[in-house]
Specification:
By secondary structure, the protein is of the alpha/beta class. The chain contains eleven helices and nine strands. 48% of the residues lie in helices and 16% in strands. The radius of gyration is 17 Å and the shape is globular. The two termini are 17 Å apart.
Length: 270
C-alpha cells in the first residue's frame, strides 16, 4: 500500500487551516486543543448571526450534532450555506443518528447539501443512510462491516468520503471509481476519553482544508489520531494521564513515525 497520503500531515502544519467548529458543548475545549496540536487554528463560531459569514472565510467547517439546540441547528444551516458559497469543505459528524428523531431529521436535511466527508460509527452511518435504527447513545451496536453498504450509498448520493470508526476503520469514496481502505491504528484507551471521536471530525476538516485529495486527507487524519493514541498508550495507562499524552502526541508525532504505527489495506471486493 502506498503511504504517500501521509504527506498531508506536514501540509496541515504548513498551511495552518482555520477550522470553524459547530460542535457539542461536552467536547468544545478538547476539540479546540486538538486542532491547535495538529497545527490548525480553531474557531468556535456557531451562532446563526455569525456562522454564515465566518464559514466564508474559514478553511474548513465541522458540523457535529452531539448536543444541538434550536439556535445551533440554525447556526449549522447558516454555516453550511456559507461554506458551500465559498466552496469550503465541511464535515458532518452524525453523533447519535437514529437514536433521536430530531437530530436525525436535521442530518438528513443537510445531507443533500454536499458534505466533503461524513465520519461516524457504524450504527450512526447505518441510521443516517436510513437502513437501521442507530446505536445506544453515541455507542455503536453494529460492526464496521455491517455498515459497508450504507457507507457506499451515502458516498454515492452525496459525493462525500465516508469514514466508519471502529476497531478497524473503513474509509470509502464513490466517484468515477470506488476507493475503499481499512485502517488499523489507535488504542482501546481512546474510547475511555471524552472527545476523541468528535475531535477526529474536526481534524478531518483540517486535513481536507490542507490536502487536494479528500480521500487521502481523511485517511491521513485518521492515521494521525490513531498513531497518537498508540504513542500515548505506551506512556500512560489511565484515562486522565492518557488524554494529556494523546494531546502531546498529536502535537509532536513525526510523519515517519505515523507510518510505522498504522496499517492500511485495500478493502477488497467493495
Amino acid at each position: 500500500m502506498d503511504y504517500s497520503f501521509l504527506r498531508a500531515h506536514d501540509s496541515v502544519r504548513e498551511s495552518t487551516p482555520l477550522i470553524q467548529c459547530l460542535t457539542n458543548k461536552v467536547v468544545s475545549n478538547v476539540t479546540a486543543n486538538t486542532l491547535l496540536a495538529v497545527g490548525a487554528s480553531p474557531a468556535m463560531v456557531d451562532t446563526p448571526e455569525e456562522s454564515r459569514e465566518f464559514a466564508q472565510i474559514a478553511s474548513g467547517v465541522l458540523i457535529n450534532c452531539g448536543t444541538p439546540t434550536s439556535e445551533q441547528y440554525d447556526g449549522m444551516r447558516e454555516a453550511i450555506a456559507g461554506a458551500n458559497a465559498a466552496q469550503t469543505p465541511w464535515v458532518l459528524d452524525p453523533v447519535g443518528a437514529g437514536g433521536l428523531s430530531k437530530r436525525t431529521e436535521f442530518m438528513r436535511e443537510v445531507l443533500p447539501q454536499g458534505p466533503a466527508a461524513i465520519r461516524g460509527n457504524a450504527s450512526e452511518i447505518i441510521a443516517l443512510a436510513g437502513t437501521g435504527q442507530g446505536g445506544r447513545g453515541v455507542e455503536s451496536t453494529d460492526g464496521v462491516d455491517a455498515a459497508i453498504e450504507s457507507a457506499l450509498a451515502l458516498s454515492r448520493d452525496t459525493g462525500a468520503v465516508v469514514a466508519i470508526s471502529g476497531p478497524r476503520d473503513l474509509i470509502v469514496h464513490v466517484g468515477d471509481t470506488t476507493r475503499a481502505v481499512y485502517l488499523e491504528s489507535g488504542h482501546p484507551m481512546l474510547q475511555n476519553v471524552i472527545g476523541t471521536g468528535c475531535s477526529l471530525g474536526a481534524i478531518c476538516a483540517a486535513y481536507l482544508a490542507s490536502w487536494k485529495d479528500p480521500f487521502e486527507a481523511i485517511i491521513a487524519a485518521h492515521a494521525h489520531v490513531g498513531a497518537a493514541g498508540t504513542i500515548a498508550a505506551e506512556k500512560q495507562h489511565a484515562p486522565g494521564s492518557f488524554a494529556v499524552a494523546w494531546l502531546d502526541a498529536l502535537y509532536d508525532v513525526p510523519t515517519a513515525d505515523i507510518e510505522g504505527l498504522i496499517t492500511v489495506t485495500p478493502a477488497e471486493g467493495i
